[in-house]
Structure formats: structure tokens, C-alpha cells
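Here is one chain, start to finish.
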Amino acid sequence: MTDFKRTLVTAALPYANGGVHIGHLAGVYVPSDIYVRYQRLKGRPVLFVCGSDEHGVPITIRARREGITPQQVVDRYHAIIKESFAAFGISFDIYSRTTSETHHRTASEFFRTLYEKGEFTEQESEQYYDEEAKTFLADRYITGECPHCHNPQAYGDQCEKCGRDLSPTELINPKSAISGSQPVMKKTKHWFLPLDRHQPWLTKWILEDHKEWRSNVYGQCKSWLDMELRPRAVTRDLDWGIPVPVEGAEGKVLYVWFDAPIGYISNTRELLPDEWQTWWKDPDTRLVHFIGKDNIVFHCIVFPAMLKAEGSYILPDNVPANEFLNLEDDKISTSRGWAVWLDEYLKELPGRQDELRYVLTANAPETKDNNFTWRDFQARCNNELVAVYGNFVNRALVLTNKYYGGEVPACGELTEADRAVIEEFRGVKAEVERLLDAFRFRDAQKEAMNLARIGNKYLADSEPWKVVKTDPERVKTILNLALQLVANLSIAFEPFLPFSSARLRAMIGLEAADWARLGDTDILPAGHRIGQPQLLFEKIEDATVEAQVQKLLDMKARNEAAAWKPAPVKSDIAFEDFERLDIRTAVVTACEKVKKADKLLCFTLDDGSGTPRTIVSGIAQHYTPDALVGKTVCFIANLPPRKLRGIESQGMILSAVGPDGTLSVITTEAPVHPGSPVA
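Its structure:
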């Protein structure tokens, strides 16, 4: 790493249109917090900047749907997001927002500087306009029929049914989502950032000068550069956002992708009004962006082009973007509610922030998508945090209190086994630092956990509870070294698990985490008094996990029910054709599974004729054999007999298909005679 005087760390601005979920935490905020905490422990000057992204069309759509103002929407979610981050120990130096006065002023000045330098191009194009509402329509404010799957409620930028990206002009029968009227095409003028002009230097800067970037980041950038960059609009017709600060731009605002990254600058300016330029314009500052993979292009290509065009800003030195985290083998989706929201987690699993930080780091999607499951969460907490880390700490503290009244015993003569353990944990610091400097947080945390594994093995091999009976002096050395390992753990885990690290230091009477002492064997001097041991972590019970899994399944069922629509009505038939169907009622008198057929049940029916009727039906996956016995069902009586698995089936029992594919047999509300016709 090149030597810098200071490091400026930015974390992607979360969009204030909803809360924050575990995918956000794993992808951006836990790794950035680990890195910043590490920098502070090393004594390096570092600034950690973030804030809510509060402009754009989705916010106006939510506001319109809820009958409130966009400002009310962002005020609500800004508070939720900010509180969630604070509760999880994400240690921002400032968490502000893009609706602040400082941001509006900074973004306007930035645009104006580029405008006056001639860094923009102007283009006139035709765009849909709502004559009734007297406004140009953003893509999301236009709905119509998808040309691919014919979903009648596709948006102007994407069909959420088939997932295709669209342009508004592709929609069949487009309508304004504001007034419901059919929009017309009308000319409008916008300003563009000509990224094609920046292609030569961007290509060299990324592909030649930053080969050390993560392979997923480097690869995505190369793909975009290989396709050749095109001009990108920096303004749009909208009434929610930062007004374009030039004449003739009435009714236009800065495009949210343009104004949002400037939020890093404005938030720094808000925090340090007299020093912010040092952090953004001094080449001795290292700029590091923590983002998810959906923001790679903006932070590696677009924002650097903006900074370069302005002329006085530094460029990012690294952009350690993560891939996506899936949830229970399915893609996290805020629209479908398939997510674990931080504010809900805090209420349902209070005091367990470090457990989630640990598991998300252990499963960090650093170079490829990864998966979070509640069962894996439980296993890692119980088998690693409780059984390894917590168990070692508890044993070391319990034995010290039992044998020495809570005083650290003096270390005596060292054996070869002692020296081997000391040598092993002395090397942990260098390895953790190497991994953290390389943004390999998952491996760094694993290395920190190795300290606890070393300690557990040392106690198991040394058996002080046995040795105390024959060689009490030897036990003093064993427990002294065990306690030094405990102290080391309280330091090594400080970037990863700040809450439990603070509790552990309180237990052993260590005032602060001094990173420089990581690996030392004399952190706790002989005679130092430790406190009473308390459980550092508690087991996650099955009931807790089952409740969380059921909560997700319930949400999925609600979404499927809400999204369900009946199949299209089949083509018309003559009334005479319907009259030919003889639909009747019958009472189920017996039912059994058909051998060697997982889906088939064989029913015996009383259809009122005096002769039992046999019908084979493919509903074994939806009903047990005895579930319908005694029920009155509806069946088609005049279908020709058909052999199924050697059984002659004399008709068809009628069922309705649910939104999840389940079958529900049609029964009668009131008792009727067997054989009654269904009219």
C-alpha cells in the first residue's frame, strides 16, 4: 500500500425509500466499519463518511402512493436507517443526508463548475409528457403492456413479471401513472456527461494502474470499457431533487446518480467546514469507496470522470466492492419483503449485534455471491462464538477465580509447549494486518478466531484442573498464558465484534484495546485483578431460528397470494357444449393410495345410483387418504372410463388450483343428496 497521510473512507449512501437489511450490512457497512476501526486502532488518521440518498423517482412514487410528501418519506427512513447503523456499531464520523442545505449547495456548485468549463453536452430528445398533469414522465411513471410477456402493468424501465429491461417507447398502450391518461411525445433538453471523452484516461487508470483491485471490480470495469462508454444524462425532468442551476432549466433537477456521490463531499464539508478540502483535494489522502457490485460502474467510472472533469479532486485509490448476499437460497428482494431488516432484527434478537456481524463477515460475498441461512447463523453462533471463543474465555476466567481469587498468577518457567503456543499467537497480528490491508475481512476474522482455537487447545492439552493436584506452580504459568490469550482476543476482535470485545475487556479489567500490544504475552501483569466471568455469547435456540424462518415463509405466502392472478379465460364454447357435461355430487365412502404412484388416490363414491363409483385422482400430494372420507365432492359423471395404474377411473373429481399450486377439492356448502346435479 502506498504511504498516505490520511484515509477517507466512504460507504455507499443507502436509499431512503426503505430500511436497511442484512444484504446491505454484509455488502458495505460491516466491512467498511471493520476497516475504519482497524485504521483507528493503528493510529492512522481516518474519516468515515456516509448519509442517506434522498432524491429520485422511487421516493416520489412511494410518497404519491402513501398520500404524503417526498420529504416525509425520506425523513421517516433516514431516521430508521441512522438508528439501525448506530445500534450495530457502524462508527461513522458523520451520517448526513442529500436533502441537507450543505449538499444542495455543494452539488449545485459542482454542476456549475463543470457547466462553465464546458464539460457537458446538451442534447434534445423526445420524451413522454402527461398533458393532463402538465409534466414530463420519468420511466417509472409510465406503465403499459410488456412487449415480451404481455404483462399489462409493466413499467417504462422494466417489466417486473419477466424481468426484461425496457424503454418507455417499447410499451404497448402506455399510460401515465399520475393521471392515467395516454402520454404524448414532447421535446425536452438535457445535459450529458460525455463519458466517451474520458475513455482513454479511464482505460489506463483502471486497467493498467489498478490491477490490484478485486477481480470482480476490475472485470466489471473492463467489460464496460470494452463496450465503449457513451454520454450519460446528468439532468432529468422532475420536481423532487436539486434544481439544475442554469437558466432555461426550469422544472429540471440533477439526476440522482449525479447528485448522490457528491453527498460524500457535502457530508465531509458539513462535518469539517474548514478542513474538508484537505480530505478531498490533497494527494496525500487515500480515498476508498465501500460499495455493492451494483454500484461499481458509478464509483469506478462515472464518479471518477466527474471528479477528473472538475479538476481539483483526488481519485479513489481502491473500491473494494462486494457481490450480493442471498437469503435462504433466494435473492434478497425489498419489494417482495424477502429480507432480514436490521430494525426488526434488533427488536427480535436484542443484544445480538455481534453475532450477526460475525456471521455476515464469515459469509462475506467478497468475490462472489454468498448465502445467509438462519440454520447456518445458529450453527456459527453456537459452534464458534459459544463453543470456541466464549468457552475458552469462560474456562480461563473461571479457573483463575477458583484457584487464585481472580488475580493473574505470575508466569513461571516455560515449557516447549508454552513456547510453541506463544510463538503461534504472536504471529496472529501480522497475519490479521496483512489481510485487513488487503480488504480480506472474512479471512482476517477467521485468523482472529484462531487465537481462541489456540487457547482452547492449550487448556485441553495442559489440563490445569488435573495438574493443580500434583504441580500447582505449573498451573500458574498455564493460566497466566491463557489470560494473556484472552486479553489478546479482546484486542483482535475489536474491529469485528466491538460490543463483545468491550464486555470482555470490562471482565478482565483492561481499559482499552491497544492494537500495538496484540501478540504480547504480558498485557495483564501478575497480580492484576480480573472480574467475575460472564457468558460472552449465549446459544441460539431452535425456537428462535424456527420463528425467523416461519416469518420469511409467511411473507413469501402473502406475496404469492397478492401476486396471484387467475389464468386467462379460455376461448368461448357453445352453451350446448357445457350442457353436455354432467357434473354431480357424491359422498366419499373410502379412499386409499394407489400402489407405486406418489400422486394418485383411489376414491370410492356413493353417487346415489346404488352402485359404488371408482375415481382415481392425482391429489395424493395435497390430501391424505382419509381426509375427504365423508365429504360431499363434485365430479364429472359422463367422462368415458379410463384405466390408471390398472384401475378403471369412472369420472373426474373437481378441484381448484391455489396460487402456490395446491389443489383444493370442491365440496358443497350444505348437505345434498348423492347424485344431485350441479347446475
